[in-house]
Amino acid sequence: MAVCPRKYRLSNRPSHPRPQWSLRLPARFREGRRNFWELLPRPKDVTDFFQMLRYFLGKSDEKPRFGRFSYVEKFDYWAVYWGMVIMIGSGLILWFLETSLRFLPKFAADIAREAHSDEGLLATLAIIIWHFYNVHLNPENFPMNWTMFTGKLSEEEMRRHHPLEHEELMAARAVHPAVPLGVPAHRAEDSSPMAQS
User: Fold this and answer.
1) Within 10 A of 192 (CB to CB), how many other CB atoms are there?
2) First to last CA, the chain
3) Domain limits for position 169
4) Do the domain assignments include residue 1?
5) Disulfide: which of 2, 70, 162, 187 matches 155 by Cβ 3.0-4.6 Å?
6) Cα-based angle 168, 171, 172 (whole degrees, multiple of 5)
7) Residues 6+ apart with CB under 8 A from 15
8) What total of structural domains would you count in the chain?
């Protein structure tokens, strides 16, 4: 089984972003900047969503083709930040209730209480149902998706789940073929099939 060079680092695993690293990674590393731009929602994500609905409903035989991140991974990643804003904002209102009620009407505290409890329930259910199924119970991954430990996908997994990125990697590999470590470039060229013919 060939393994693609795609490494699942922080921003590649939207299920478990660490905010302190997610904010620093794009600024410090080229791959982090690339991943950040790839995680931004695009019009293609909307068309992919509707294409996937058509596929699930049997109206289409073709699944949408995803690049580095699918619309599901993007939603999963950004939902954490959306949830943090709701939980922190409503939590501060509830924590400092007396101070908050000096500046806000009573219904703002009621909305904050509902938002806080609903977001907490939503996050819990997302982890238990969505994440647990996708990582552990999905027949493709059972008993678990080992990518979180190995940091790699097989070439077959890349073709199946991220075909556009796979094609991009293979095209880049064709332009710049890998040279074995420790072999000088001129020797690698001499031993290539083109040089031998």
Assistant:
1) 12
2) 30
3) 10-196
4) no
5) 2
6) 85
7) 76, 131, 134, 135
8) 1
| 176 lies in some domain | yes
Residue for token pair 């219904």: 107
- Residue 148 CA neighbour count, 13 Å, CB half: 13
AA letter at 125: L
Residue-wise pLDDT for 31-79, tens only, equals: 778 888 889 999 999 999 999 999 999 999 999 999 989 998 898 888 8
* Residue whose structure tokens are 């904010």: 23
Question: Is residue 116 assigned to a domain?
Answer: yes
Q: Can you give the chain as a three-state secondary structure string?
A: CCECCCCCCHHHCCCCCCHHHHHHHHHHCHHHHHHHHHHCCCHHHHHHHHHHHHHHCCCCCCCCCCCCCCHHHHHHHHHHHHHHHHHHHHHHHHHCHHHHHHHCCHHHHHHHHHHHHHHHHHHHHHHHHHHHHHHHHCCCCCCCCCHHHHCCCEHHHHHHHCHHHHHHHHHHHHHCCCCCCCCCHHHHHHCCHHHHC
CA 178 to CA 190: how far, in whole Å? 14
Q: Is the pLDDT of residue 196 over 60?
A: no
In-domain check, residue 123: yes
Q: What is the CATH number of the domain that holds 156?
A: 1.20.950.20
Tens-digit pLDDT profile for residues 77-134: 888 889 999 999 999 999 999 999 999 999 999 999 999 999 999 989 988 888 888 7
